Amino acid sequence: MSVSRNEPASRYALDLLRRQFDLTWSLFEYHLERLEPDDFLWEPVGNCWTVRRADDGTWVPDWAESEPDPVPLPTIGWLSWHIGWWWGVAIDHARSRAPRERGDISWPGAGEPTVEWLRGLRADWLEALDRLTGADLDSTAPFPWQDDPRHTVADMVAWVNAELMKNVAEIGQLRLQRAADHPPAVTS
Fold first, then answer.
1. What does the H/E/C string look like for 57-94?
2. How far is CA 80 from CA 24, 32, 33, 75, 165, in A?
3. Largest CA distance in the chain
4. Could you tell me which of 9, 1, 17 has the C-alpha nearest to residue 161?
5. Whole-angstrom Cα distance, residue 159 to residue 128?
6. What pTM was computed for the model?
7. 141 — alpha (psi -120 to 50), left (phi > 0) or beta?
8. Which of 167, 164, 179, 168 is nearest to 39 (CA)?
9. pLDDT tens for each residue of 46-76
10. CA distances in angstroms from 70 to 62, 76, 79, 169, listed in the order given
11. Scanning 75, 119, 140, 170, which has its CA 20 to 30 A from the CA of 164?
């Protein structure tokens, strides 16, 4: 349902942010539907951040407390873990739950497990958005600005859209680059 411009500004803003999110997600679905399991851990250059199997079988992301220079190129696996981390924490905040720590976010593995995990995050985010009231949208955002009164929950929703759009573009570019470098075999 669309909100008219005569509705309260916060509801109009949420409707606009939701349409922007839906547009970003449609681009993500385009890539999610085409990702192959081998795409996730493909390292196109030597200086990459990825996710690696630990001795206990879990996946651990490469990480540095201060950003290295040059910044390593992230793999699709690392980017999908990163989305799961920041988006999961944003959902925690939107639901007024204690946010999980970075180390508490487990990457499910290459291929369909991660695609389904990301789609589940989308469903959780939409559920959280549906619960927001005008007063919620106008309240101070707890994340990612740590309760800075200059930023509202509506700003947090806009930040999620922007961060997702950036990560989707990165994943899409990596997928397209790998596909161009590894075209399917032609059968006659």
1. CCEEECCCCCCCCCCCEECHHHHHHHHHHHHHHHHHHH
2. 15, 11, 14, 9, 13
3. 64
4. 17
5. 15
6. 0.90
7. beta
8. 179
9. 999 999 999 999 999 999 999 999 999 999 9
10. 15, 18, 17, 20
11. 140
Provide the pLDDT for residue 7.
Answer: 54
Rounded Cα distance, 116 and 43, in Å: 23
Distance in angstroms (rounded) separating the CA atoms of residues 89 and 137: 17
CA distance 25 to 166: 12
Hey, what amino acid is at 100? R
Cα radius of gyration rounded to whole Å, the chain: 18
**pLDDT single digits (tens) 137-163:** 889 988 888 878 899 999 999 999 999
Residue 87, pLDDT above cutoff 80: yes
Cβ neighbours of residue 64 under 8 Å, at least 6 residues apart? Answer: none
- HSE, side-chain direction, 13 A CA sphere, residue 51: 25
